[in-house]
Design a protein that fits this description.
By secondary structure, the protein is mostly helical. It has 13 helices and no strands. The N and C termini lie far apart (59 Å).
Amino acid sequence: MRSIVGLAFIILISTLYLYCLSSYLPPVPSLIQQNRVEAEEEPGGEREVIRSELQLKFPSDLQELKQMAGLLKFYKREHSGFVLLLFSSAYLYKQAFAIPGSSLLNVLAGALFGPWLGLVLCCVLTTVGASMCFLLSHFFGKQYIIRIFPDRVAQLQRKVMENRSSLFFFLLFLRLFPMSPNWFLNMSSPIVNIPLTYFSLSVLIGLMPYNLVCVQTGVVLSDLSSLDNVLSWSMVLKLLLIACAALLPSALIRHYGNAHKHTAYTQPEQKDR
């Protein structure tokens, strides 16, 4: 009972913080002036236009994502620090409480912050947010997760025990080729005694290709001015770099896996001799 109360208190405080952050926005005179000019074309609609333009919420589809990106880009010209704080807070909120939809925020990061800053930001926020989910599960949710997902937790426990000698690379493999959802891995990892260090590093490295693809998608969408740009040389080069970055970790895992099998195979032979 105490764990439920503690988790509910943390969720309540975090929700209030995010609500206040998104509701009490610093003024943007140029944006308000633009809204007034647009509202003059439709008498009586000024208040509604300003309110609709300044409404912030989690995007649920591509159309809402484009509208949010346009608003935050405009807002970022005069309050870049606030946009960074708002985006980081919203991202951590989703990750910490295992709320779906982080992929759209990755795309939004590419549109707002560009390819490199967007990628670094998403990788750091993904790692920190997943680690927060790990800790929340460790302190408040172990018994409830076991009760809700007994078969999944038992299966993950067996896999972890079988791959204990190469645990980090096994976790990296799960992130690159997810057989279980990331939210479930985040919540169940402390239950199966995965160290937080291994967990965080596997999230940082293993989700980097996925974050890269999402961020580059946001960059492409924001830079795309006509259909002629789709097959430009710069766009093709970006896609090739994304493909290489996505394949590199899997190649490293395959190389390590083969080396590990070779070592395990030769050790019994040396003992026989």
